[in-house]
Specification:
By secondary structure, the chain is mainly α. The chain has one domain (about 30-45, about 55-150). About 65% of the residues lie in helices and about 0% in strands. Keywords: Membrane, Transmembrane, Transmembrane helix.
């Protein structure tokens, strides 16, 4: 008697790898775009509201500096971290946007423009606080994620 072998079960195709890769790509792009925007907004001053409309550069207006880049870094980086982890359901997905954002900020702090000055100067307190608190937003999200993991166990 010959035995009839059942056909091998078909493996179901899953959207999970596509969603994971898409979530990582979107979070990396968001980290890059917000990082560039934060670097551009660090010299923003109160008088720039009027001078930007005339076509002048950001930072050319008078008045006190506005820390909009700091607020943007904290809110956007925390939101990017949440998006990366919740979209992919992988804890490690927090790493790539955090690393890219940090490398971008370090690159901006160490690169000279054609005029000889740095993109982010050492005396620009808004830029330095933006780097500190922007990275801290990723770190706080990571720390809260770690604590949630311990609480379940």
């Amino acid at each position: 008697m010959t035995e009839v072998q059942a056909p091998a079960p078909r493996r179901k195709w899953s959207w999970e790898p596509v969603i994971v890769i898409g979530g990582i790509v979107v979070s990396i792009l968001a980290a890059f775009v917000t990082g560039v925007l934060e670097v551009l907004l660090t010299p923003l001053r109160a008088g720039d509201v009027l001078t930007i409309w005339r076509g002048e550069a950001i930072g050319s207006g008078g008045g006190p500096p506005i820390g909009l880049a700091i607020l943007l870094a904290v809110v956007a980086n925390y939101a990017i971290a949440w998006f990366a982890v919740s979209t992919t359901a992988k804890r490690w997905s927090l790493g790539p946007p955090w690393a890219l954002w940090t490398i971008l900020m370090l690159f901006a702090a160490g690169t000279r423009r054609s005029e000889g000055d740095y993109l982010i100067g050492g005396n620009d307190w808004i830029a330095l606080v933006t780097i500190l608190l922007g990275s801290l937003a990723y770190a706080i999200f990571s720390y809260r994620m770690i604590l949630k993991g311990f609480a379940r166990n």
